[in-house]
Write a structure and sequence with these properties.
Chain lengths: ~280, ~525
């Protein structure tokens, strides 16, 4: 904090206050409002490793992210995310044991994801019925098609219709998460624009270690989504808040401000709709 | 040059094979919408009047709403030439669908001067499940897509190659696209506005552009007049518009007088519907129109391996299309606008125009991949293999499983009933057909269109059925009404056609003899035909 400029300090305090207000307006209690606000502030501080510019409009926009007014089913999840942010910060600051901390961070992120989606309980027991594999309808369809696809011989049918179809369901589940509606419901319509540019920039500059870490984080998040039978958009994306904020902040450096302002006004108009 | 010709030949072959082979068998039966088009086309081809006795209408009354006219008039030609069959009803759509592949390839070459990109675009469209699906059905949207694509192609030919005279056929094609399907009522004017704004500097100096515009306005006036005359009726624009949705009306009524709140509600609904039309899981993995949702063997509207190409392509448009990039982005953005203004769940036919810019972006992504990994034969081979596997799975789902499992959705059985009746028509005085069908006796079919179409009954019978006051849907020997066996006086020389879910009880069975049974493609019983013992 000591190295932060006055403007950045003001931005971070403003983000805390905005986020608190939004949480109170959403009906969250002080406990969750504080945790969500601290999550935003720490994510912004972590993102400052990539850029020193966090304009006021972006602070305002990030505070309004619906994900930051979300109340997760498990309080442990906050601890999980804060550990993840800490590990990410260590990865950036340290030159030694980078890979160890990265892998540890990814494990923590994955745990957060499966915990959030109720695939795993707090006592680390699993809920098999929530996983994408072993769905009775899928198994039945495989057997039916193996039996009834008379256009080819039985041996080939066993090869064509097999449990590999679960991988297709896994990909479908991931793609389902990335509908425009799911994204603007969770991170606000205006932020889709800098997020897309942030991801693009991370892919383009994937040789930078932190970008690699971010992309791996996204892959882990996608994997967690894919293995869940019915992933909830908030529960799935919540553990990845630090990644989203980092990518939005980095992507913001390349945006057309006029388009962003228009999108922001449009987002406010939509977000305050009575339905 | 030889390699290029071979690729063009392969694309043409795939296009023709996927769209024409087994056209009368996949889908398994003419659907509700298809028979409506086919019957009106047949009626027009014989009498120049539609089912409801209107002379050469601009909008065809159908199933409580209205249909656009162009496809019906085009189909009347194929039916006149080839007779009443599934093949003749679907032929115009298959032809225009195949030609769209050629038009898209030519358009991409015109805009990018890149032959590889042009071939990839054509190839991707040729194997697009969305386009194969719509090309193999007698659907208006597919014909409209051809005219829209042709109009855009001719526009750029006129604008880029300085062949001003081509603005005239371009605007005529724009106009025809509006006569072909209702989505284009909104989309075509939007595209014309976007083109006019982007290329205004060049266009302002061209007289032919303004003449073309005038031709467009003049030719769509009859459509506009017809729309205004039908305001307040059940015309399609009045029944399918977003604001006619009951749930939305209820929400708006709660905010009466507060226009800002009402605006927010409408906008939220519009954005949500817009989003539903571009959901990646539905577009690339599991389209809502083939197998039931619980079945894991699904196919997207675009093959799944093209998703990464689409995402990468979004960032490569500027590089490949240079000055035309703004048009491509806007084309992609505005296509789902009109479907998003309509009610109901996502309808793949309404959003078909989105396919062209989406595939164009996908083709750009494929070319970017090739440029990046061209030297890595393993990467290119693996990606091509994935595309082939994906197309193989789509083919077995669409050409084999879909016809077997979707019989009920297509009202399967009415064609088979007609084929049974036709040679025995003289043996009966009356034919009673129960229009309810399916398990649970819940769906209402349209046998009053299927039977006359497949038996080639003189259309005048149906045109004059309104004159029969006692029986609303009776014509010639036919009575289309639900059968209540307990109160049905069973008569001699009468044929009773009922669904399997309305078979007579044991008491009535003593008087009746089942003379023919129709089974669905999945071998479940569909209909039975009875006569008095």
């Amino acid at each position: 904090m000591a190295k932060l400029s006055l403007n950045l300090k003001i931005s971070i305090v403003a983000s805390l206050l905005f986020c608190l207000s939004v949480n109170f307006l959403s009906g969250n209690n002080l406990y969750y409002a504080l945790l969500n606000s601290i999550l935003l502030a720490t994510s912004i501080i972590f993102s400052l490793s990539a850029t020193k510019k966090v304009p006021f409009i972006l602070v305002l926009s990030l505070s309004l992210i619906p994900l930051l007014s979300y109340v997760p089913t498990s309080k442990t999840l906050y601890l999980n995310i804060f550990i993840y942010i800490l590990l990410l910060s260590i990865v950036i600051k340290c030159t030694k044991h980078k890979y160890f901390f990265t892998i540890l961070g990814l494990i923590v992120l994955f745990l957060g994801n499966v915990l959030s989606n109720n695939l795993v309980n707090e006592n680390l027991s699993t809920n098999p019925e929530r996983f994408i594999w072993n769905v009775p309808e899928t198994n039945q369809a495989i057997t039916d098609y193996q039996r009834s696809s008379f256009y080819t011989i039985y041996r080939l049918r066993l090869f064509i219709y097999n449990k590999g179809i679960y991988f297709y369901s896994f990909l479908t589940s991931i793609a389902g998460l990335f509908s425009l509606r799911n994204i603007y419901d969770t991170i606000l319509l205006a932020n889709i624009y800098p997020l897309a540019l942030g991801i693009r920039s991370a892919i383009k500059n994937h040789n930078t270690f932190i970008n690699k870490v971010m992309l791996l984080g996204i892959i882990v998040m996608l994997f967690g989504t894919g293995i869940s039978k019915s992933p909830d958009k908030f529960a799935t994306l919540f553990p990845a808040v630090p990644i989203f904020i980092y990518l939005v902040i980095t992507g913001f450096q390349n945006i057309n401000r006029m388009i962003y302002y228009l999108l922001f006004i449009f987002s406010l108009f939509l977000a305050t709709s009575p339905v | 040059m030889k390699k290029r010709r071979s690729i063009i030949f392969i694309i043409a072959l795939v296009t023709i094979l996927t769209r024409f082979v087994g056209l009368d068998k996949v889908p398994p039966h003419l659907s509700n919408d298809e028979i409506s088009i086919a019957y009106d086309a047949y009626s027009i081809s014989e009498t120049l009047r539609d089912e409801h006795n209107h002379f050469m209408p601009i909008s065809f009354e159908s199933h409580g709403t209205h249909k656009a006219p162009l496809t019906i008039y085009l189909t009347s030609l194929s039916i006149k030439l080839l007779g009443n069959s599934d093949f003749s009803a679907r032929l115009p759509s298959a032809i225009f669908g195949s030609l769209t592949v050629l038009v898209l390839g030519s358009l991409v070459y015109l805009l990018s001067s890149n032959m590889s990109l042009s071939l990839v675009s054509g190839g991707v469209l040729a194997i697009s499940p969305w386009h194969i699906y719509t090309s193999r059905m007698a659907l208006e949207t597919n014909v409209a897509l051809f005219f829209l694509a042709s109009a855009i192609y001719l526009f750029f030919l006129a604008e880029n190659r300085k062949k001003d005279i081509l603005f005239l056929p371009s605007f005529l094609a724009f106009s025809l696209s509006m006569y072909a399907y209702h989505t284009e009522w909104g989309l075509t004017p939007l595209i014309i506005i976007v083109l006019g704004l982007i290329y205004r500097k060049n266009l302002m100096r061209k007289k032919a552009y303004f003449i073309g515009l005038l031709i467009f306005v003049l030719t769509v006036i009859p459509l506009l007049t017809n729309f205004i005359n039908n305001l307040g009726t059940n015309a399609r624009a009045n029944t399918e518009f977003l604001l006619t949705q009951d749930s939305l009306k209820d929400q708006l009524s709660l905010q009466q007088g507060n226009y800002t709140r009402q605006g927010q509600i409408i906008l939220s609904r519009f954005v949500a519907t817009y989003s539903s039309y571009i959901e990646p899981d539905k577009i690339f993995f599991a389209s809502p129109n083939l197998l039931p949702k619980t079945n894991p063997f699904q196919a997207g509207l675009i093959l799944a391996p093209f998703l990464p190409a689409f995402l990468f392509g979004l960032f490569g448009i500027k590089k490949h299309f240079k000055n035309h990039a703004p048009f491509i982005y806007l084309w992609l953005f505005i296509c789902p606008v009109v479907p998003a203004l309509t009610v109901g769940e996502q309808q793949v036919v309404r959003n078909l125009p989105f396919l062209l810019p989406a595939l164009l972006v996908t083709a750009v992504g494929c070319c970017q991949f090739y440029k990046k990994f061209g030297n890595n034969k393993t990467a290119i081979g693996s990606y091509s293999f994935l595309i082939l596997v994906s197309f193989f799975y789509f083919s077995i789902i669409y050409y084999y499983h879909y016809p077997i499992e979707s019989g009920v959705n297509f009202q399967y059985g009415y064609k088979q009933i007609a084929e049974y009746i036709k040679p025995r028509y003289g043996n009966f005085d009356k034919i009673v057909i129960d229009p309810i069908f399916g398990e649970g006796y819940v769906y209402t079919g349209v046998p009053h269109l299927y039977i006359p179409y497949y038996t080639a009954l003189d259309p005048r019978y149906l045109q004059e059925r309104g004159k029969n006051v006692l029986c609303g849907n009776c014509f010639d020997k036919y009575e289309i009404r639900s059968i209540d066996w307990e109160n049905e006086p069973v008569s001699e020389k009468t044929l009773y056609v009922v669904p399997d879910s309305n078979k007579p009880s044991d008491v009535e069975k003593n008087q009746l003899n089942v003379i023919y049974e129709v089974y669905l493609p999945n071998r479940k019983p569909a209909f039975a035909i009875y006569e008095k013992i």
